[in-house]
Design brief:
It contains three helices and three strands; from the N terminus they run αββαβα. By secondary structure, the protein is α+β, with helices and mostly antiparallel strands. It has a three-stranded antiparallel β-sheet with strand order 2-1-3, with helices on one face. It is elongated.
Length: 113
């Protein structure tokens, strides 16, 4: 197993944007009925890339809003807007998680578990 410091230095050397990237974590679809405005939050729970997630939300916004309207006992009229929420990607935390998983895997292989 490569030492933590060496492995992290290699990972950082392969990324010029270390801790500078963002990802879209959710979308808020604002839709209206005849009386009110509603907000429907859609989480990016499958960690789709930004383009894939935004395309999926935009393609399915109307059907998602109609389902939300039915759930709220009202009638969907139109989409008022879609907003996306971004957060910074913590490359240090991702690296630590991957390194820990690799160490665990190596230990299990060596011990026959």
């Amino acid at each position: 197993m490569v030492a933590y410091g060496i492995a992290k230095a290699r990972a950082m050397a392969n990324r010029t944007d270390w801790n500078e990237r963002t990802e879209i974590t959710k979308a808020v679809i604002t839709w209206v009925d005849e009386d009110y405005e509603y907000e429907l939050e859609i989480e990016n729970e499958y960690r789709m890339d930004d383009a894939e997630f935004t395309d999926w939300v935009e393609e399915n916004a109307e059907s998602l809003a109609k389902a939300d309207a039915e759930e709220n006992g009202t009638t969907f009229e139109e989409i008022d807007g879609i907003d996306f929420t971004e957060k910074e990607i913590d490359d240090d935390a991702l690296f630590d998680e991957e390194y820990e998983n690799a160490c665990e895997f190596e230990w299990e292989c060596q011990t026959g578990r």
